[in-house]
Q: What sequence folds into this?
């Protein structure tokens, strides 16, 4: 595949590459692979399209991008030495450490140039480097789109269309010999600006104010506005061509003059090496792991508490999708966290597939069936599921509370929270943390500087409505969310996270398991109607205690408080007073306090004394005095009760509202069925239909696997062979180059039979059942029954072709076989 002459086009340069290099191009720019190009020419054409080039430029690091920007303002083609000089300067400035910087640039340039070559943004030999035309157009200067280097157009570009008389005036003012040839005049002016000695002599005669004007333009933007009667310093510069007119009111500093003033450098500060991530603290790795493990357990508990609070059916889904601000505030209050943190937990549960909308007419959020499976897992495996979902999710909770492109508020669980860059940024932040020694907490600013160096153009590639550096914002959110989730502890990456990144979920769970406290099977009952759980509780105990008591405080120990309402809740769930006494006695390390026993007996005695059924609703009670008391209470007016019998009242509201109303009045009514039996209410009955976790929104075409890359390269090579092969005529009806071969049926049969016997390849024209014509290079294996079975080099597979659909056949030229 080697070439004896330099390539004249990008297609020729790509054709000269080996298969591994072509696979590297497709791996770096997967958008070129969809669909698979038919040949090298199609690949080169697609690689030069604007959308593809923009995407490739956005994935360059800062120095590779600076190299491309330097090539955009260099002569086309540019020798390697000129490119290096544009990045290092001509050595005429007095900047400190300039020699060291030049050495660093010279050492880094081959890598940057190799990246540009690999991605087909640069091609050609070292003495004739060419930036692809689309990239040159994107990075070249213009009044509407100034160059990233801050350089303006060349003298030749800026003087295009200028009258010969005006050129003569500029030459005379600059002390150059007059010439009537515009080309010679432009060349003479360019030569002056690139000659350090003569340019220095010219600037020595400039007024101080004129040099100040040049200082303001030299690093860009190079354009300035002038009045019809410019000031003397501006007039001095304009007369000598140091400022050239772009329009009647705009002038520009030509590129050659700016490079002289910059000492030949295209960039003020070349950055050949990535910034170092600075450490701000060195912590004990064991303390980091313990802190992260504690937060990991809290994360699991918080998500579980969130979904328990929505067990009976969560908040309604907004018409436009998502969670209302009021419901988010209620959720934050239940979890005892701020609203942004509550939004993070809600989004995390959704990303993990534990939460979804139920899809009903009155759509509400509720746990999914996967939640029940998740709760049965050990705590460490539950954490691994949450961490893995967070790493892969494109949903970005940090955006909640902001606005989209149309000014609408972004809500939790809403449809506009996907940012395709989020997974990449999260992984990269964690990789940078993993590169630090264990226990090291990084400086966030140095971390952001490193990310900006790696993707300088991607920060501004935010979705509509985002106006700041999206990648930096996601990186900061990643640091905060890592602490919340237990990914990191005290600012440093935990060992269980390092295991998750390098070894996978099983290794991470095994590393985390010893750090999570074992669940307890007991609590400590207090005389003030509270119970203290000195650690995490076993699930049956925690579920029963959650029904019997209210959580009063959390922390290292959880405090539960028993109230009449909480005891009634347990009785509503089907427990009896005897069951509750037995439960407390079995699970308390302290004696059951007498006040708690009295509370349970008192509530149980009154529980179900009143019965609520459907009339619309009714109340019945064997004690007439109780019903008289209810009717006499002014608070019952809203219930619209009337007596049907000495022991029954009727209401014009539904049973559920009547239950709530009487409970607010201090009674303990129970609902009953049509048969008169007490209805038992159990929590956790509402589940959505099976829902898969939301699929992350991809940032672009996925990186192809090696098998697909190999097949694609073979298909491109085969298509290129079919498109560029030289054919030999096999008869009087020989085909013209580029057309389908035409032979008679007899000639076709004889040729393919001969090829099958010799194992050689032939070129055929083929028309499929839909009438589409194509050219193919095949190696016939068997010819029988009106069909030819052959290995198709174009499709890279064995196929069978009807002979009557082959328009003709031609042998490959000797140099191709």
A:
């Amino acid at each position: 595949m080697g070439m004896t002459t330099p390539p004249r086009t990008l297609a020729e340069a790509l054709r000269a590459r080996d298969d591994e290099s072509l696979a590297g191009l497709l791996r770096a720019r997967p958008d070129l692979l969809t669909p698979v190009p038919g040949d090298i020419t199609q690949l080169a054409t697609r690689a030069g399209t604007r959308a593809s080039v923009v995407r490739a430029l956005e994935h360059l690091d800062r120095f590779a991008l600076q190299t491309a920007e330097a090539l955009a303002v260099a002569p086309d083609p540019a020798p390697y030495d000129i490119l290096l000089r544009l990045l290092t300067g001509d050595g005429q400035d007095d900047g400190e450490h300039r020699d060291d910087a030049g050495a660093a640039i010279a050492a880094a340039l081959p890598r940057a140039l190799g990246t540009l070559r690999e991605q087909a943004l640069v091609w050609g030999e070292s003495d004739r480097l060419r930036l692809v035309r689309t990239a040159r157009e994107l990075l070249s200067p213009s009044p509407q789109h100034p160059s990233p280097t801050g350089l303006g157009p060349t003298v030749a570009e800026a003087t295009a269309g200028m009258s010969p008389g005006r050129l003569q005036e500029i030459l005379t003012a600059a002390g150059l010999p007059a010439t009537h040839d515009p080309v010679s005049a432009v060349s003479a002016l360019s030569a002056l600006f690139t000659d350090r000695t003569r340019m220095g002599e010219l600037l020595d005669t400039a007024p101080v104010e004129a040099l100040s004007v040049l200082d303001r333009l030299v690093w860009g933007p190079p354009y300035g506005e002038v009045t019809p009667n410019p000031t003397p310093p501006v007039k001095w510069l304009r007369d000598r061509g140091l400022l050239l007119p772009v329009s009647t009111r705009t002038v520009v500093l030509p590129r050659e003059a700016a490079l002289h003033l910059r000492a030949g450098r295209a960039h003020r500060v070349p950055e050949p090496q990535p910034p170092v991530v600075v450490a701000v603290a060195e912590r004990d790795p064991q303390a980091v792991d313990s802190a992260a493990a504690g937060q990991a357990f809290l994360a699991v508990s918080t998500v579980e508490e969130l979904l328990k609070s929505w067990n009976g059916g969560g908040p309604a889904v907004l018409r436009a999708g998502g969670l209302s601000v009021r419901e988010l505030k209620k959720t934050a209050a239940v979890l005892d966290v701020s609203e942004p943190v509550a939004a993070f937990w809600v989004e995390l549960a959704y990303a993990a597939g534990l939460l979804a909308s139920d899809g009903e007419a009155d759509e509400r959020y509720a746990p999914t069936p996967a939640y029940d499976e998740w709760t049965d897992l050990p705590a460490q495996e539950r954490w691994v599921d949450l961490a893995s979902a967070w790493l892969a999710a494109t949903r970005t909770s940090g955006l909640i509370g902001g606005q989209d492109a149309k000014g609408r508020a972004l809500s939790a669980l809403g449809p506009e929270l996907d940012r395709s860059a989020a997974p990449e940024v999260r992984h990269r932040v964690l990789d940078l943390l993993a590169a630090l020694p264990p226990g090291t907490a990084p400086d966030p600013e140095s971390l952001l500087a490193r990310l900006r160096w790696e993707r300088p153009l991607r920060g501004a590639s935010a979705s509509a409505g985002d106006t700041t550096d999206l990648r930096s914002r996601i990186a900061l959110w990643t640091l905060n969310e890592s602490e919340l989730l237990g990914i990191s502890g005290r600012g440093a990456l935990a060992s269980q996270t390092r295991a998750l990144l390098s070894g996978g979920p099983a290794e991470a769970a095994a590393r985390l398991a010893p750090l999570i406290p074992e669940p307890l099977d007991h609590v400590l009952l207090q005389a003030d109607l509270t119970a203290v759980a000195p650690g995490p509780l076993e699930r049956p105990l925690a579920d029963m205690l959650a029904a019997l008591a209210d959580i009063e405080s959390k922390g290292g120990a959880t405090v539960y408080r028993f109230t009449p309402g909480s005891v009634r809740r347990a009785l509503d769930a089907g427990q009896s007073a005897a069951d509750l006494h037995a439960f407390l006695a079995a699970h308390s390390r302290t004696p059951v306090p007498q006040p708690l026993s009295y509370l349970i007996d008192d509530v149980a005695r009154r529980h179900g004394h009143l019965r609520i059924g459907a009339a619309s609703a009714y109340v019945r009670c064997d004690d007439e005095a109780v019903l008289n008391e209810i009717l006499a209470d002014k608070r019952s007016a809203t219930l619209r009760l009337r007596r049907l019998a000495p022991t029954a009242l009727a209401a014009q509201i539904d049973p559920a509202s009547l239950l709530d109303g009487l409970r607010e009045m201090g009674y303990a009514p129970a609902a009953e069925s049509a048969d008169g039996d007490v209805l038992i209410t159990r929590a956790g009955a509402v589940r959505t239909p099976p829902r898969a976790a939301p699929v992350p929104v991809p940032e672009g075409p996925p990186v192809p696997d090696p098998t697909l890359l190999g097949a694609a390269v073979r298909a491109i090579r085969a298509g290129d062979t079919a498109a560029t092969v030289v054919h030999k005529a096999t008869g009087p009806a020989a085909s013209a180059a580029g057309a389908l071969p035409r032979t008679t049926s007899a000639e076709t049969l004889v040729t393919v039979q001969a090829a099958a016997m010799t194992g050689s390849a032939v070129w055929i024209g083929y028309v499929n059942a839909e009438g589409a014509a194509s050219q193919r290079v095949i190696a016939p294996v068997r010819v029988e029954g009106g069909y030819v079975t052959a290995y198709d080099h174009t499709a890279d597979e064995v196929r069978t072709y009807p002979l009557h659909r082959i328009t003709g056949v031609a042998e490959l030229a000797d140099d191709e076989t």
